[in-house]
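Students often ask why we bother encoding 3D structure as a string. The short answer is that it lets us treat folding as translation between two languages. Here is a chain of 430 residues written in the first language.
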Amino acid sequence: MLADDTERCAARSARVAGHISQYGWSLAHRGSMSSTARIAVKDIQRALARCGAQEIAFRAEVQPDGRTTLGLVWPTPVVEPAVGYPDLGVLILADGALPEPWLRRPGPVSGTVPAPSADLELLERTLRERLPDAVGATEEEITTAEARLGVTFSDELRVLYRVTPRWEDWSDDYGARERVNAAVGCEFSALEHLYSVDAAIRHPGWGLGATDTASTLPDAAVQGLAGSPGWIGFGTNGGDEFAVDLTPGPAGYLGQVILIDHEQSLGAELVADSLTDFVLGRMSKERRDHRRGRLPALARVGGGHLETVQAAAHPALEVLSIEAWDGEPFSLAPVAGLPCLRTLTALPGTLADPLEVAGLTGLEFLELGALEWRVLLDAGAVPRTLKAAAIKVRDQDHLPVVAIANEILALWGRPQIVQTLLEGDLGPAA
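And here it is in the second language, the structure alphabet:
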């Protein structure tokens, strides 16, 4: 990484950082990596495999004359490696903590009814024509599955499993599996393999998840959730999950079919108004973007977005990101006390007074520069509502970042980050 560093070549101190795991790496490297650098990464990966370590993070400073300080940060469950955090990652302040959208439960669904296209007789007749020799589940078996999942199936879902063959009749027969999949219209799951879509499994990590939002609009067919006890996964398309939706949105139908995209962590897409439509290939033409309505829940200030924090202030604001800005630093006073604000990220130097963070009474996630964290720590003003935190590093920030992180962790009684410091001489730049 130092070979092409323009700072070192210009007789100035060079700083490099990143983390390398057994299966990948995240390096703050200028330009494309040379083959020599890639070989070096592979060597480190082999060393990690030999010693049984999953990853290693590092940050180094090299003086023009070659004097070098290298800090190696060892893996710890209190640090979540994350995209955009090359050397440290996100500090996890509570075991198992998730951002609010991943804890959100479905809203009331009273009054929802099956779609007009739901036709139990047509559904059963179609499946029996496609699977004439199938022996389906008994009512007792279906009731047992309902009890296991804690839900009451839609009438269509009960028909589906009353007509399709049991798992033992086709699990070991490739041809039979293909016939069942073709009959239903997806890679089908047996009754005993039905599951509710788990919001926690879809969580992408705090580095991405803390700044994500989802909402349910009044005209939404699907609720803006990460998961729901009423999203009953019954099959896949090879990567994404199909589910019968027993907790639809305000404009949805009970028992509609939705698609949970494996590349998305919040929301789902309407596929068919009913299982009858799904099996007959009558897919919904109206596929609303489940990410509609992000504003005013999310706002970016600076960096070509909004020009004032006041413009971002709204009772529904959940995530505020303050980006690079050539003007005066921003005051947080306009968003103090907002009831839904749970995430603040602010690049180093963009806050007029870091102590105004104390006025944000519901913060779950906070990302600030090292100097801003220093102000909060010295004043004893770190919000105790936090579940996770991050230190945004710049070239001038260096090894003390780990010391600051350990001070933050100590406030929650969390294990300390272990760092090994090495000093040596790499010689002057070529």
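Translate back mentally: The first strand starts at residue 14 and ends at 21. Keep this in mind for the problem set.
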